Amino acid sequence: MDLNWLFLFPMNGAAILFTAVAIMGGLVAYLYGPHWKVRKVPGPPTRPLIGHLHLMAKYGPDLFTLLAKKYGPIYRYHMGRQPLIIIADAELCREVGTRKAKEIPHRSIPSPITAAPIHQKGIFFSRDEQWSTMRSTVTSFFHTSSLSTMIPTMQSFIESATQIFDSHAQTQQDMDFSKFSIKLATDVVGQASFGVDFGLSKPHSTINTTKDGCDEATQFINQHIFNTTNLKMDLSGSLSIIIGLVLPILQEPCRQILKRIPGTMDWKLERGYRDLGGRLDRIVEKRMEEEKGRTSKDYLSVLLSGRERKQNYLTQEYISALAYEQLLTGSATVAFSMSSIIYLVAAHPHVEKKLLEEIDGFGPKDKTPTLEDLKDKFPYLEQVIHESMRYIPSSPLIARETATDVEIGGYLLPKGAWVWLCIGALLMDPKNFPEPEKFKPERFDPNCEEMKQRHPSAFLPFGIGSRTCTGKQFAQQEIKLTMIHLYRRYVFRHSSNMEYPLEFTYGLIRSFKNGVKVRVIKRNID
């Protein structure tokens, strides 16, 4: 009698058990493998799957400063499955950003960026030769000689945009300065970088309207803001981003499904990037046709010129990505900084008084500063700008990723480790900035003792090392011109509808949750 059938079930059961154990073992290794590699670095206890995201939900970005006080200058923070090595010490930041830049050359790519492919093709997240080609190409646009020629363009947009201030001063109606600043900054970067007038500062009657009655410029800026503020690195992002924090391997398949379901956040983001990308693609295509007879050299011209020499690295999709990146960094970050300045100066009368004295002392209201004037004639304005960037930073972190095993702060970090510089903690550390809770522009006076004693890497608003922001001077020039023009004519006071303390939303770039509501007061100066 054949009894072999009796062994079928035990054997199948063993196979099933073995498979289940293998799957579970693989899952555990996938989920906790990154943790195991950096387990010697101190940090708070983690929760399964979400890591420390629950702490971020409770404390916001202030969490990094709180953890630095408890665990020291280098510690672990788990963004879901992915551990981050947080650096909260100026000397260690310099080590990561400059001395060991060859071992830590890349920006890590968090799940929000994975959810937005256009960002991965820009200079921020490109790597190796692709990155070096892009950077060497765009750097020439930000040369001093180029910046000087942009001043008349910037000034004309600033003068046009600020015409609305007189009506606000007369009616004493609240003004949301953050909305004004993003429109102005987008117009400036559009004209200076692409030779395109987005028309955000023009009267509505001169702008094409769509079927729903909303002008194209407003649609464009609203979509731009929506996409910028909804790439979040916490549990309030789109479903695919949340999945990417926990199980990165499933993020892209889920995004491909969700972006096809109307009403989901992924669908809205995908549609937004398609619309924004489409508009930028049309700008690029049109300029490619016109470029042969064009003499001006704006940002897009520089890219198209570089394309002729580096066709493999500057294809049209990469040029469009660089164009969008320039739009993003040249508008959102600049607008945030300008709004912060207006908010903080309005709350500190002694700062306002000193700032007005410097600006009034420059000359008549219609005198436009030159590039040399901006560098030499407004030292206190520069101190106000820097202190505003310290007090309300647009981004509290700088992301890096190791390309090889490297030792930092006594810990051996493996290849592929995410190392993030916590500049927000540095900015509120009394060792770097005594009385950090106070708004004191004078702390950035080159002649004061505090400035002389401060570590050079304690203040990094534009990054550090070879990946320092290429548009630093462009941004500062626009901010200075705007502040000079405004404070020659107006001062600002907080609206009674302005909340305190300020509330923020945290995406790729920090933004004001409820805007910056102010009252405009016209100055009586000839």
From TrEMBL:
This is Cytochrome P450 711A1. The chain crosses the membrane at residues 6-32. Keywords: Membrane, Transmembrane, Transmembrane helix.
